[in-house]
């Protein structure tokens, strides 16, 4: 996959919530090989934007294109190439980490225990495979969710505050995982209240809209992190 291939494009994008304009006149192109951090203060619409891009929310105006086509016309193809992690880990606490991953892996047709055990080991959960998730800490639950990145075949990762509850080692591992995904032709859209140490990180600040963005955005539609 070319590192200049356009995956998601937003055209004249706008969103209101509770009769309040969050952002408007947002035009951006997200390409293969990028890690893009969505910035803005609380209430600026970061989570709303990610939920819209993931297809969870439909309260917006404008166009969303997937590989050059209206997303509404290729919704199935888009869903097959998407991995979304929201604020909540999306883990069923009555199941074990391995059982949770079995459920997610089955969605993409993968139920190889070797692959799933490796994914858990990579997030320092080796030995916890059969522990009920209700016995795990918040950080461990977050790592169970992030273990999905270890076997996902999705080209687009949309991650809302994935660093929450992670220790320093967990943060470093996740940063390396994001960088590797981009280096192999994937796209990462991520929110985080902390700095992200990823090569060539780019940023989209929702406070720039409805400001004049033409002078601060590069040809791909996202501003480089200088």
Q: What does this 3D model show about the protein?
A:
There is one protein chain. This protein is an alpha/beta fold and 226 residues long. It folds into two domains: 1-81 and 155-226, Rossmann fold (3-Layer(aba) Sandwich); 88-153. The chain has six helices and ten strands. It has helices at residues 46-53, 75-80, 97-107, 113-122, 138-146, 168-183; strands at 6-17, 20-31, 35-39, 61-66, 69-70, 82-85, 156-160, 187-191, 202-205, 223-224. A six-stranded mixed β-sheet has the order 6-7-8-3-9-10. Strand 4 (61-66) and strand 5 form a beta hairpin. Helix 3 (97-107) packs across helix 4 (113-122). It is globular, with a radius of gyration of 18 Å. The two termini are 26 Å apart.
């Amino acid at each position: 996959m070319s590192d200049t291939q356009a995956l998601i494009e937003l055209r004249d994008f706008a969103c209101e919530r509770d009769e309040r304009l969050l952002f408007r006149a947002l035009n951006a192109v997200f390409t293969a090989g990028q890690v893009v951090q969505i910035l803005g203060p609380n209430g600026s619409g970061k989570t709303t934007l990610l939920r819209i891009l993931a297809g969870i929310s439909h309260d917006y105006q404008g166009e969303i294109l997937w590989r050059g086509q209206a997303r509404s016309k290729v919704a199935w193809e888009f869903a097959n190439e998407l991995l979304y992690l929201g604020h909540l880990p999306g883990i069923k606490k009555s199941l074990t980490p391995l059982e949770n991953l079995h459920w997610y892996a089955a969605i993409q047709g993968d139920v190889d225990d070797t692959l799933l055990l490796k994914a858990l080991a990579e997030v320092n959960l080796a030995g916890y495979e059969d522990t009920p998730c209700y016995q795990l800490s918040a950080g461990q639950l977050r790592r169970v969710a992030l273990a999905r990145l270890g076997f996902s075949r999705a080209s687009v990762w949309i991650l809302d505050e994935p660093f929450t509850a992670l220790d320093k080692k967990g943060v470093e591992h996740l940063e390396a995982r994001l960088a590797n995904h981009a280096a192999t032709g994937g796209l990462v859209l991520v929110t985080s209240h902390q700095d992200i140490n990823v090569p060539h990180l780019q940023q989209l600040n929702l406070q720039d809209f409805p400001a004049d963005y033409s002078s601060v955005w590069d040809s791909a539609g996202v501003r480089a992190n200088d």
